Amino acid sequence: MKGQEWYQADDIAEEYDDKRFSRGGQLIDRREKTAVLDALGPLEGKNVLEIACGTGRFTVMLAEQGANVVGLDISAAMLQQGRKKAHASGVDDSLEFLRGDAGRLPFPDDHFDTVVAMRFFHLADDPAAFLSEMKRVAREQIVFDTFNRFSSRSVYNWALPMGSRLYSANEVSVLLAKNSLELVDVEHDFLAPYGLYRAIPNVLASPIRTLDRAVGRLPLTDHLMSVSYWNVRV
């Protein structure tokens, strides 16, 4: 997986949320969490695995919604931030953080109702193999996102410290077909790149986001969106 060493650094883990989800990045955080909750539906009593859970943004949120959650990540530093976040939110008993490799998940077949993988596929060196492993441990559903090839994401992709894999909708469709996964729904969003939102305060980001969403409703804009949220059935 790309960026393993970068993500495992202590200073990166400590600053990760502040750098990406403060200022205008709060709009990104809110949208991503909404996409996950909309796809998963009622969570009370569900067993959920989050792949590449990082600092626990989604892991803690899912536990707060009543799910029994396991968050898996390769970075011990990121997991430590997640544990602090879970303790502060009072959901320690509803989730577990494990260090592990998404390519070799340490769980039996059909162990979880749902597997969630956000901010992961752009780092995957073998997405088909990773998706196959997620399918193996999921009974019902997989939810993930991808960054899109024909979008503003490609403008600053070269500047990322670990690079980034971009996908077309057709490539994702092929991945799903190879793993015999059924597409339930997909949502495309963010014409403007994430980097723009992170660089500006909310007072500027909010009107840009309003315009972004308005333009995004126009026909033929889906393939220009920066990110897609995929909900598939096993």
Automatic annotation (TrEMBL):
This is Methyltransferase domain-containing protein. It comes from Natronosalvus hydrolyticus. Keywords: Methyltransferase, Transferase. Residues 49-140 form the Methyltransferase type domain. One of its GO terms (molecular function) is S-adenosylmethionine-dependent methyltransferase activity. InterPro entries: Methyltransf_11, SAM-dependent_MTases_sf. SUPFAM superfamilies: S-adenosyl-L-methionine-dependent methyltransferases. One of its GO terms (biological process) is methylation.
